[in-house]
Amino acid sequence: MNEIPDVPEPETGVIEVVNPSTGELITEIEDGGAKAIDEAVARARVTFESGAWYSRPASERAKILWRFADLLEERAEELGNIDALDTGMRPAHAKNLVITTCEAVRYNAGWITKIAGQAIDLSVRGGISGIPGSFHAYSLKQPVGVAGLITPWNGPLYCAVMKIAPALAAGCSAVLKPAEQAPLFVPKLKEILLEAGVPEGVINIVNGYGRTAGAALAAHPDVDKIAFTGSTQTGKTVVEAATGNLKKVMLELGGKSPVLVFEDADIERAAKGAAMGIFINSGQGCICGSRIYVHRSIRDAFVEKLIEAARAVRIGGSHEDNVDIGPLITERQMNRVLGFIDEGRKEGAEVLIGGKRIDRPGFFVEPTVFANVTADMRLQREEIFGPVVTVSCFDDEDEALALANQSDLGLAAAVWTTNLARGHRMAKAIQAGTVWLNCQLVLDPSMPFGGYKQSGWGRERSLNGVEAYLETKSIYADLQP
Ligand code: ADP
Questions:
Q1: Which of 306, 20, 300, 60 lies closest to 196, judged by CA?
Q2: Cβ–Cβ < 8 Å for 427, 434
């Protein structure tokens, strides 16, 4: 049986970058470790204190971000190809992610000229000391300082830029520690940031392992805020590390997103949506819908279509044509996914399709659908981050809701129904940061994104996402002559 590995990644000082589509070594890069993080934080601190970025006029900074987006867009193909090689994603999909990122940068650019405090009419006419006054009071929004950004590998450039953009919009300087599994985009991103006009030292990128560089950044006493995207387990470690200087922490963590399919749903659309909602990117997405609950009366019809959709998925490497989904990111991740599958089987869950490694070089696992799962199985509780979905039944709305909420995680959820009132009833009651009605995996820069329960703290995207990099200051001035 494949064990579900819980071993730390190697810490050799050198990071092997492997092509997951072939298993071949692409290159080796250096793990910067705590030393490079210290240097990067010092650079970020100097640029922040000097005001090199946030003291520039807002309109100038907005133009620079807009230029940053334009450059990303111009090079979307090249950048997409780099991420595709590094992660095994389809190049077209990777390019699409870059384009999506451009829109997010432009969205954040728009906020720069609109970040503002408020002038406030006070109720009090004197201080606690009893001395009366005639007050002019207002609040100011100011950058939080040096932000540490820690990102995962599933959409390497995308995840990085989705944090860099609001940090820049707020006026912060930052240190980014991208995932060690997919660092190939880093030199290009550095180049583009500078070409766009972001001053040197404002965004500093350090390659390294999580347990070396990542941990050093999370614990660093001169970092004011950490924005982390990754697993729930690592998120908890980051929180602990951040307590030293009580830096602000924003977490976008794992998901075990439920998909509810009601008897009045368009079964064909729901099955296709649910299939791509988990198999896209080989299930390596925090928002993937990995627990399907279907009304008992349509269970067989739905499962038939789901299996059909799973069978139709074309699997291949990033260098191949006519491919829908690629490999898992690493051999370790593949073994972890196979470990979940083996354990589920052993505990009595039934594989309806898939369930095996694909016999070819690279780290491929078949799209896999499980039935006969119980709530206590790890298969049903933990984020697998692989192309694995479970299907269970419910008999009525109350049960559907209870099952959907039966999770420690609460990142996203989907509801398939043609009953409008039911859809909104469910959307309101499901404990998740994002709910899709008759669709899945739709995200927009203008909509807040984050998790209920152990799926995170805070919200990214939207104005909330910029606010997360701002402090608010209240100023009282006595205007008495
Ligand atoms: P995944 O399972 O997606 O790799 P992780 O949460 O382990 O999820 O990784 C997400 C990011 O967190 C990566 O950049 C990784 O290097 C970093 N990371 C891993 N461990 C730690 C840690 N102890 N402290 C800070 N960052 C970490």
A1: 60
A2: no
Q: 52-77: per-residue pLDDT in tens? A: 999 999 999 999 999 999 999 999 99
In angstroms, the CA 295 to CA 262 distance is 5
- Report the predicted TM-score, pTM, of the whole model to 2 decimal places: 0.97
Pocket test for ligand 1, best of 6, 37, 86, 150 (most atoms within 8 A of CB): 150
CA gap 382, 391 in Å, rounded: 15
In this predicted structure, what is the pLDDT of residue 126? Answer: 86
- Whether ligand 1 lies within 6 angstroms of the CB of 149 is answered as no
Considering the candidates 159, 286, 288, 393, report the single residue annotated as catalytic: 286
- 3-state secondary structure (DSSP) of residue 184: coil
Residues composing the chain: 481
Contact of 449 with 463, CB cutoff 8 Å? no
Asked if the model's pLDDT at residue 172 lies above 50, the reply is yes
Distance CA 105, CA 161 (A): 8
As a whole number of angstroms, the distance between CA 339 and CA 352 comes to 17
| Strand ranges of the sheet holding 135-143, from the earlier edge strand across to the other edge | 119-120, 135-143, 470-478
Contact of 469 with 318, CB cutoff 8 Å: no
Q: How far is the CA of 189 from the centre of ligand 1 (A)?
A: 20
Tokens representing 427 are 């959307």
Q: In this structure, what are the phi and psi dihedrals at residue 287, rounded to the nearest 5 degrees? A: -95, 5
Is ligand 1 within 6 A of the CB of residue 323?
A: no
> Which pLDDT tens digit goes with each residue over 179-204?
999 999 999 999 999 999 999 999 99
286 is catalytic: yes
